[in-house]
């Protein structure tokens, strides 16, 4: 499969909870949670979440529609096969221009891919540096 595969949907709660254990990247309009499932033969999946704290049901549904459309139309965003993505909306999603929203999505996804493919850089360590974590006994 190519890197620009059209993403599927995350639908079940256990899937959303699993993605929470992956990489998290904050942005001005949403938080991106990213998990590599290590299944390159399966299509990528995207889920959207908006907490009640972000507004009433009309506003929350509008945020989800805007993010869903950004995912659908975003050019330059390459969702990788075998990865799960969750977008957790922030209130600023309502007032952001659609161009800025899609730019932020592309930037967060690219940043997430860089950090997942180079875990030392994500942790702020020098390449080849020894980990200070103790091995399990």
Question: Would you kindly provide a written description of the structure presented here, covering whatever features stand out?
Answer:
The chain has 137 residues and is an alpha/beta fold. The protein has a single domain (8-115), classed as Ribosomal Protein S5, domain 2 (2-Layer Sandwich). It is 36% helix and 18% strand. It contains four helices and five strands; from the N terminus they run βαβββαβαα. The protein has a five-stranded mixed sheet, sandwiched between helices. Helix 2 (57-73) crosses helix 3 (98-117). The N and C termini lie far apart (40 Å). The mean pLDDT is 84. It comes from Pseudohoeflea coraliihabitans. This is Ribonuclease P protein component.
Indicate the topology.
Elements: E1 8-9, H1 13-20, E2 23-26, E3 30-36, E4 45-49, H2 57-73, E5 83-89, H3 98-117, H4 119-122
Parallel strand pairs: 1-4, 4-5
Antiparallel strand pairs: 2-3, 3-5
Helix pairs in contact: 2-3
Pfam families: Ribonuclease_P (PF00825)
InterPro entries: RNase_P
Catalytic activity: Endonucleolytic cleavage of RNA, removing 5'-extranucleotides from tRNA precursor
Q: What is the strand content?
A: 15-25%
**Domain module tally:** 1
What is the string of SSEs from the N terminus onward? EHEEEHEHH
Low-confidence stretches: none
CATH fold naming = Ribosomal Protein S5, domain 2
Helical content, roughly?
Answer: 25-40%
Largest sheet: 5 strands, mixed
- Mind telling me the C-alpha Rg? 16 Å
Going across the biggest sheet, name each strand in turn: 1-4-5-3-2
Distance between the termini: 40 Å
């Amino acid at each position: 499969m190519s890197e620009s595969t059209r993403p599927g949907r995350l639908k079940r709660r256990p899937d959303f909870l699993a993605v929470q254990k992956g990489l998290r990247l904050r942005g001005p309009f949403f938080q991106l949670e990213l998990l590599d499932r290590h299944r390159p033969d399966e299509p990528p999946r995207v889920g959207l979440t908006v907490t009640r704290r972000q507004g009433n049901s009309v506003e929350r549904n509008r945020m989800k529609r805007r993010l869903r459309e950004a995912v659908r139309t975003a050019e330059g965003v390459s969702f990788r096969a075998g990865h799960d993505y969750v977008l957790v909306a922030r209130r600023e999603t309502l007032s952001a221009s659609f161009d800025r929203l899609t730019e932020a999505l592309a930037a967060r996804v690219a940043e997430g891919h860089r950090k997942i493919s180079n875990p030392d850089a994500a942790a702020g360590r020098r390449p080849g540096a020894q980990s200070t974590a103790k091995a399990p006994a």
